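Quick question, first post here. What does this chain look like in 3D?
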Amino acid sequence: MHGDDFYAHDKVLGAVVDVFEKQNVDSCYGDLLYVDKNDKNKVIRYWKSSEYKPGKFKQGWMPPHPTFFVKREIYEKYGLFNLNLGSAADYELMLRFLLKYKVTTVYIPQVLIKMRTGGISNASLKNRIRANRMDRMAWEVNSLKPYPWTLWMKPLRKIGQYFLRG
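> Answer (accepted):
Ran it through. Tokens below.
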């Protein structure tokens, strides 16, 4: 989670532990609400995720990164965040773990995290273009090949999130 993100309810960690124990997976993720930076009850965007399938990354999909929980041994085996990728470090980590190394994962169909608006990658068109370049590098450093439209679909898939409400 980022410094100003917070759990959506007091049972989030219990739900995550439950998934790890009962389903014996390496990782899990859920849904995320973007909330107004000054009013944590005002929903701006609802990032409703879905079940993971390997081909989805190539369609611009990714799980909401603050909701992505991973067992320690996976970090020990496949490495930590690549901080050279700036705002794409979390995207690269998920690509590496889920797509490249095929760690097991489960979608928890509930809002796990609330995230305040104001992130750097979406602050301006210039930042969004820079973030898109870093996303491309995330594929390259893992020797993965996106489709020509993959990195254009990634931000376009988010448009519908502004019309959903938790």
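The CA atoms of residues 17 and 119 lie 28 Å apart.
The first strand starts at residue 6 and ends at 7.
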